[in-house]
Write a structure and sequence with these properties.
With about 750 residues, this protein is α/β, with parallel strands linked by helices. It folds into four domains: about 70 residues, no CATH class; about 280 residues, Rossmann fold (3-Layer(aba) Sandwich), CATH 3.40.50; about 230 residues, Dimethylsulfoxide Reductase, domain 2; about 110 residues, Barwin-like endoglucanases (Beta Barrel), CATH 2.40.40.20. The protein is about 35% helix and about 15% strand. It contains 31 helices and 33 strands. Strand 25 and strand 26 form a beta hairpin. Helix 10 packs across helix 20, helix 14 runs antiparallel to helix 17 and helix 14 runs parallel beside helix 20.
Length: about 750
């Protein structure tokens, strides 16, 4: 029998339908432009996107560099911009032609393809239609209901796209009404980072800066698909590989963006089609297998350290960490067969990864929702930190922990007060700056909101963007309860399915997008955002608004507050609306250590860094040191055997926004109602490719959760794993299946079975 190839040789042999980037990305952008007819103004916006004098991208939260490239945008950023600046309009006449019940049957893509909302709308139950209304009528009616609703019975949700200025006011507005019910989109993705990373290093955000990517010689990359979710990270990854950095990837699917990349901004690469191979090793872990795989890497490094003095950073371990000896003993007691079984990868693969780590001088750990959306996602993050701590790879150049955020300002919203936790709110500064006494009860995160909704306790929902009803688990139960609320209010740019679950009273308030002019009394306004590296940037829109009737998110929040709150001499809503610099003064006074001189600093190329104590090796943890952790299980998924479903984005998708039906980087086209199954699993299940099947959740059998009509598609996946798209498969996720520390839905390890 021939010897199995080495792990490095296996990684080098991986084939993908096409490289990330290249002509395919340009064709994807062109297809979106063709479908949206965005016009020449959109092209000009793209030319200034993510530049010091331009607009911050509304897609992912990757850095806006101080020295940008000629084209500082990626395929998905371009799609998001073209989507915003479409020429299509969903005017009131459209809603007069269609009932809400009929629109509910449309696909997400078809709904959004109707274009930008143009005027405020109110729901008329007698005709089951949204009808034209006025801003004055909307504010008066909404304000009246808010005044009459007990604070504990209302929830203010925030999508991660809203800038710092409206986010700050939104959080303050909720607390002025008497509640901390402030869930946001991070509850669905990186809340596990906020609590898990904070527990072990004292910081809820990553420790890296972009310059670290120029200095690292190894990157451990876990559970994140850059080709689809954050393509601009591919450029520093490519440059790192070219100078000799080795990337070790842990991911169930062999994703093109983790295998090879052609830089669309390189004429030579585009002409020759020569791709850069990215992953030196590719460990195809089964769902939840990251804990065991990383422990295996640690086990090998610790074994080498017994014979290689100085391999571990003993000085760092002694001065800056707690719990190392207990962790080392746990690793020693864990056998290789246990690790192989739990991870789905071989001892040889884990040892090869350990060799890369041991031989590297500076290592960055990167991760995404493949870690955070697990039942023990916090423990998976803790295990990555365990590995980094062994050789002091936090708090020095070229090293650190780098979670990759999704929404463009989801991290920034938390920074300026959108949190349900009283302990994280600037209680004393609210009192000093606004004369506001913060409610003392913790509020709703998304999970708690859904529980209150299902119990009939939440009566009012106000959404600052987003499509929350589709993003959450347990669709059948949640959607039924959603329509029983007294009032639902949506600040939105386009129609989506959440709007089609109207409460007894329902309003759609159309707002500007970030690339449009925001003209207030003091002129066209700047806003600001925070990226994944804790940098704050200004952003200014220059395009003519899609409708003369649109208002900015900030203006809408100010008018809602005026309509629902009593007069207070320090609540200057008209002044804040007239000049957003006045809001930034509030932010700087509320968070003086991080935001001092905000007005000047945010306009500098590259913005300003608000700081991170963990990067300076100052640990705000229980022990005052970085914490080694002992996982409660080797696999982060739910207990038991059987199939595990992981949900995915397509290449033509950003969260619940569906730009089209192409998933070209996986070689999949034309349909989203699919389930990906390996050839071996198809044989075990008695399935054939192209067959239509039903997926059923294999837990909490007292409530049936099923999605029918899924087409079986052959795909390379680990044993016991199937995959499909969200939000289409979100009905299969029980509300109870979540990370225990963060309440983040465990959408990367759902127990399922087939029915044919």
């Amino acid at each position: 029998m021939p010897a199995r190839p080495t792990p490095a040789a296996e990684a080098a042999a991986i084939a993908v339908p096409e490289a990330a980037g290249g002509w395919g990305s340009l064709q994807g952008i062109a297809a979106t432009e063709l479908s949206q007819a965005a016009g020449p103004g959109a092209i000009e916006t793209l030319a200034h996107l993510n530049k010091p004098d331009g607009t911050a991208c509304t897609s992912c939260a990757w850095i806006k560099p101080p020295t940008p490239a000629a084209f500082e945008f990626c395929e998905n950023g371009a799609k998001a911009t073209l989507w915003d600046l479409t020429s299509a309009r969903a005017a009131p006449e459209f809603f007069e032609r269609h009932t809400v019940a009929s629109l509910r049957q449309w696909s997400a893509h078809d709904l959004e393809k109707e274009g930008r909302l143009t005027e405020p709308l109110r729901y008329d139950a007698s005709t089951d239609r949204y009808l034209r209304t006025t801003w004055d009528e909307a504010f008066a009616a909404i304000g009246s209901t808010l005044k009459q609703t007990p604070p504990e019975a209302m929830t203010f949700y925030a999508s991660g796209k809203a800038a710092l200025e409206p986010s700050y006011l939104y959080a303050a507005f909720a607390r002025m009404l008497g509640h901390n019910n402030l869930p946001d989109s991070s509850n669905m993705c990186h809340e596990t980072t906020s609590v898990g990373l904070k527990k072990v290093i004292g910081s809820p955000v990553g420790t890296c800066q972009i310059e670290d990517f120029d200095r690292c010689d190894a990157i451990f990359y876990l559970g994140q698909n850059p080709g689809t979710n954050s393509p601009r990270i591919l450029h520093p990854l490519q440059e790192a590989v070219k100078r000799g950095c080795r990337i070790v990837t842990f991911n169930p699917l062999k994703e093109a963006g983790l295998v090879e990349f052609i830089n669309p901004q390189s004429p030579l690469e585009m002409l020759t089609g020569k791709a850069t191979r990215l992953s030196h090793l590719y460990l195809q872990v089964r769902p939840g297998g990251d804990i065991a795989a990383l422990m295996g890497v640690c086990k090998h490094v610790l074994a080498r350290a017994e014979h290689e003095p100085g391999l571990l950073d003993s000085g760092f371990l002694a001065e800056h960490t707690d719990g190392f000896n207990a962790f080392r003993e746990k690793v020693a007691r864990t056998d290789w067969p246990e690790l192989e079984q739990a991870s789905g990868v071989t001892r040889a693969e884990m040892e090869a990864a350990g060799d890369v780590y041991a031989e590297a001088k500076a290592v960055i750990g990167i991760y995404g929702m493949g870690l955070t959306q697990q039942v023990r996602g916090s423990e998976a993050i803790g295990m990555l930190v365990n590995l980094l701590l062994l050789r002091g790879n936090i708090g020095r150049p070229g090293a650190g922990c780098s979670p990759i955020r999704g929404h463009s300002n989801v991290q920034g919203q938390r920074t300026v007060g959108i949190t349900e936790k009283v302990a994280l709110a600037p209680v004393g500064k609210y009192r000093e700056v606004l004369g506001l006494e913060t409610p003392q009860q913790d509020g709703h995160n998304t999970h708690a909101f859904l529980e209150a909704l299902l119990a009939g306790r939440n009566r009012v929902y106000l959404g600052l963007g987003g499509n929350l009803a589709m993003a959450v688990p347990d669709h059948e139960a949640v959607h039924e309860a959603w329509t029983q609320m007294d009032m639902t209010v949506h600040i939105a740019t386009r129609l989506n399915h959440t709007h089609l679950l109207p409460g007894k009273d329902s309003w759609i308030l159309p707002c500007l997008v970030r690339s449009e002019e925001d003209i207030q009394d003091s002129g066209n306004q700047f806003v600001s955002v925070e990226d994944s590296f804790s940098h704050i940037y200004s952003s200014k829109g220059r395009r003519k608004p899609a409708s003369e009737h649109l208002m900015s998110e900030t203006a809408i929040i100010c008018e809602l507050a005026k309509a629902s709150l009593p007069f207070h001499p320090r609540w200057l809503w008209d002044e804040w609306r007239a000049d957003y610099a006045r809001i930034r003064e509030l932010i700087a006074r509320t968070y003086p250590d991080q935001f001092h001189d905000m007005e000047a600093r945010m306009h500098a190329p590259g913005g300003f860094y608000r700081g991170n104590d963990a990067r300076e090796r100052i640990w705000h943890t229980a022990s005052g040191k970085a914490e080694f952790t002992d996982p409660t299980a080797l696999n982060a998924g739910p207990a038991g055997d059987g199939l595990r479903l992981i949900t995915l984005r397509s290449n033509d998708q950003f969260n619940t926004t569906i730009y089209g039906h192409s998933d070209r980087l996986r070689g999949l086209e034309g349909e989203r109602t699919v389930v990906l199954v390996s050839q071996a699993e198809m044989a075990r299940q008695g399935l054939v490719e192209g067959q239509r099947v039903t997926l059923v959740t294999a837990m909490e059998e007292e409530r049936r959760r099923a999605v029918a009509g899924l087409k079986v598609v052959a795909y390379d996946l680990p044993d016991g794993c199937v995959a499909g798209y969200f939000p289409e498969l979100n009905p299969l996720v029980p509300l109870s299946l979540r990370d225990r520390l963060s309440d983040t839905p465990a959408s990367k390890g759902i127990p399922v079975r087939f029915e044919t």
